[in-house]
Amino acid sequence: MSRGGIRPWLAGLALLLATAAVQSQPITERARQKQAAEKERADLQQRLANLKRDIDHTETAKDNAADALAASEQAISKANRSLRDLAQEQQQTEARLNQLIRQLNELTALVNAQQAQLSKLLREQYVAGNEDRIKLLLSGDNPNRINRELQYMGYVSQAQAKLIETLRANQQAIRANKADTQNAKFELEEIAQEELEQKKVLEREKGRRQTLLSQLSTKLNAQRQEAGRIEQDQQRLSSLVDKLAQIIEQQKKAEAEAREKRRQEQLAKAKAEREKRLAEQRARAEKRAAEAAKAAKEGKPAPKMPDPADAIDDDEPPQQASLGRNDTVPEPQPDNFGKPFASLRGQLHLPVKGDLMAKFGSRRGDGPTSRGLFIRAHEGAEVRAVAAGRVVFADWLRGFGNLIIVDHGNQYMTIYGNNQSVLKRAGDLVKAGDTIATAGNSGGNEQSGLYFEMRYQGRAFDPQGWVTSR
């Protein structure tokens, strides 16, 4: 309610009170005052309705701008993936063209050699001329043998000529194939150039839409707080993770028996280790008790008992690490899909190089606590998978932009958000160190970088207890 609206309302209310106190005023005057108060109330209600309508319009415009930005980011991601595929096709075409050139050179050399051999043979026949034929005729040998000798000499010349024609035909075929391959190479280069130009157009359109979205966000922030939407975004992500977990469980029913067997073996091993530790603890406790009893019997002070705080379970999460810079990323690794993800604790590397700007559990303003890390990195920086797994989600999600989720088995997942581009598709298998995305600021994020989460059984936990800087 504006001050301009409050003051007339208060004035009207004061006038009504004054009218009630002065009973001698005419009824028509009281009716007029009541009518004025009702009109002021109607004006206030109309102003409130207009304000709500303005907020709705701004929210709708922002949603439309966010959808448009999402479409631009998805298109840019698709263009990047297309350019990557075209580059691979160009490399393959170039290799095929080089192979054809080598084959053409080899055939040319062979044709030249065959031509030289045929020329030599023809010269020798020409020099010998009819002399050899006359010698054969006057030799007195069997006429059939003489005829065969003469035919053989002709066959040799014909065979040489036919071989050269075959080689020339092969040369012509390779030249034609080379020309087709060269044309395909030129077409790929033209397509790549068109894709690049289209990407530039998309980048400009993305910039315009980002500017519009920023302006609308500024306007809307003056009308309402953003904390509710952030919580909704996190709820969407949690809901998505839960649904994905259900799908994953359905897809892995065939492996259930093997997983259960391995789990039982691990449980048995863990149980044996726990029982061993408990037995050792009981033995130490009995030893200390015996020492204490002996000391008490001898009148000596009892030995100091260990502090219960020292008996912290090894599975307790580590303390939060401080903010800093990450300069190590996962290196490409051979196939390690059989290695349990839990065994990699303390050996992982963060997925992108950059400055750690937000840690697990931190709070921004009045919003909820962060469930992951935000690493500031330049736009286009390579985002790598921290471990082997299967991509179960690769799409745009409100609040997280271009998002990738990798399932590592045994209910462990890693989440990579705010990407400029996603380079993998749902269902793809990835190895540790594979480039799966490029860093960016999709989803309306102000800074370029990567949002990174780790989850177990759908619950987020601090990634810093699992990574190393070595």
From TrEMBL:
GO molecular function: metalloendopeptidase activity
Position of the signal peptide: 1-24
Top-level taxon of origin: Bacteria
Location of region: Disordered: 258-341
Chain ranges of the M23ase beta-sheet core domain: 370-463
Keywords: Coiled coil, Signal
Biased composition (Basic and acidic residues): 258-301
CDD domains: M23_peptidase
Keyword Plastid carried by entry: no
Official protein name in the record: Membrane-bound metallopeptidase protein
Source organism of this protein record: Herbaspirillum seropedicae (strain SmR1)
